[in-house]
Amino acid sequence: MVGRKKEAEELNELYASDRAEFVAIYGRRRVGKTYLVDQAFEGRITFRHTGLSPIETGMSGTGLLKAQLKAFHQSMLRQGMAVDHCPEDWMDAFFMLSMALQKIDDGSRQLVFLDELPWMDTPRSYFITALENFWNGWACHRANFMLIVCGSANSWILNKLVNNHGGLYGRLTYQIKLSPFTLGECEQYYESRNIDMSRYDIAQSYMIMGGIPYYMGYMKRKASMAQNIDEIFFSKGAQLRNEFDHLFASVFDNPDRVKAVVVFLSGRSAGFTRDEIASHLGISNGSTLSAILSALVASDFVIRYVPFGFSKRKAHYKLIDPFCLFYLRFIEGRDSLVEGFWLQNLASQSVITWRGLAFENVCFNHIPQIKKALGISGVSTTESAWSKRDDEGTQIDLLISRQDNVVNMCEIKFYSDIYTVDGDYHRVVMHRQALLEPYLKRGMGIRSTLITTYGLKQNKYSGVFTNVVTLDDLFSS
């Protein structure tokens, strides 16, 4: 199993424990939560059920609740449990499940897997109350019982389970946040499928798919990376043509408002403050916006950071999800897509510009690898972008502020060859360093750092960079 060995080992350790376990696994849509459980516990799941998608059913209210209960009943029947009627409510459903499990209990570990749990919690269904009663009144007292729940609605998992202040307070025994693959894990995945790709192309595929295994599964061995992108996004009936809408409709309560925030954030690489978001979208800078931003951060779409030298009140929200950025740049709002668009535009200025911005996000998603290359893995750091409004509109792609009184001022260049610093660019780097210096605390030093694909060509200007991080460094574990 590629990229999930640590999580699989953790789950198996919990399975082997001598106590009841309640485990929550969460992560964005298509990241591989169900696959992880299936692979880790193949042949060992006592009972499993997946909630019905409100989007797919087109139902709401009482109708959706009845459909969820009917599906739960059918899951029990399908898996050989002797139940004589469809449950009337969730309290009844969990009681029926507990009685069926007791009948087949032989003392070995009983594993119940409830997938897409947030979908089961329909309005006024009292689902959480029933789940609390099931766990607190029965399951937690059975040393051989293990409950695993999954969901793509990360904010629901966090609010209702992880940070629950009611009957489930402190009841989770373990939680796993499943993140997208890193570049190194993407490489392992492609190798496992015998797809031969250079690291340069793997990086570009990451800029588009963001290390999401489900998306990467559409890549075909016999096609080039560019041909695959055309097939997946720009061909007639392209597999991921409508994924952007599904991504939010299936996970968020107010998908249109969430999408509006995402679209706005895509407009500036450095991100925006809460006040700017609220003002642009015409919404209150209150609890609703807080819930949206928290959900986006929890789902790895957005990061919250404080620009270097600013107070926490100036925290920015930056969209870092590669898939969303690619989709909004090249697909959203187009009534029709040109087949072969990607192959035809590989050398276009719009794609070249996009690569540069997209590589910045690759770096923001690989801070541990960058720190390892710099030899500062054990040093506490904060990361941010930084801009200074002057005649040149100076912006620094990435600042790594270190506890050892050093700031790595990172210039990020996605380039098809070894990068060469000329006189003009040397002047730019020195100018940026001079602008940054007044904002440093006394005693702090600057290390100008180049993050690029193939390294730096040595010449009379190359000494402007103290450190160089390459694409190979970003692929490290």
Describe the model:
The chain has 477 residues and is of the alpha/beta class. The chain folds into 4 domains: 5-177, 3-Layer(aba) Sandwich (Rossmann fold); 183-241 and 337-357, no CATH class; 244-329, Arc Repressor Mutant, subunit A (Orthogonal Bundle), CATH 1.10.10.10; 367-474, Trna Endonuclease, Chain: A, domain 1 (3-Layer(aba) Sandwich), CATH 3.40.1350. The chain is built from 22 helices and 13 strands. The protein has helices spanning 5-15, 33-40, 54-57, 61-78, 90-103, 117-120, 127-137, 154-162, 183-192, 199-209, 213-216, 225-234, 243-249, 255-265, 274-281, 287-298, 322-330, 341-344, 349-364, 367-374, 423-436, 471-474, and strands at residues 21-26, 47-50, 110-115, 145-151, 174-177, 272-273, 302-305, 316-319, 381-388, 394-402, 406-413, 445-452, 467-469. The chain has a 5-stranded parallel beta sheet, sandwiched between helices. A 5-stranded mixed beta sheet has the order 9-10-11-12-13. β11, α21 and β12 form a beta-alpha-beta unit. α10 crosses α17 (322-330). 36% of the residues are buried. The mean pLDDT is 92.
Secondary structure blueprint with pairings:
Elements: H1 5-15, E1 21-26, H2 33-40, E2 47-50, H3 54-57, H4 61-78, H5 90-103, E3 110-115, H6 117-120, H7 127-137, E4 145-151, H8 154-162, E5 174-177, H9 183-192, H10 199-209, H11 213-216, H12 225-234, H13 243-249, H14 255-265, E6 272-273, H15 274-281, H16 287-298, E7 302-305, E8 316-319, H17 322-330, H18 341-344, H19 349-364, H20 367-374, E9 381-388, E10 394-402, E11 406-413, H21 423-436, E12 445-452, E13 467-469, H22 471-474
Parallel strand pairs: 1-4, 1-5, 2-3, 3-4, 11-12, 12-13
Antiparallel strand pairs: 6-8, 7-8, 9-10, 10-11
Helix pairs in contact: 1-2, 5-7, 10-17, 10-19, 17-19
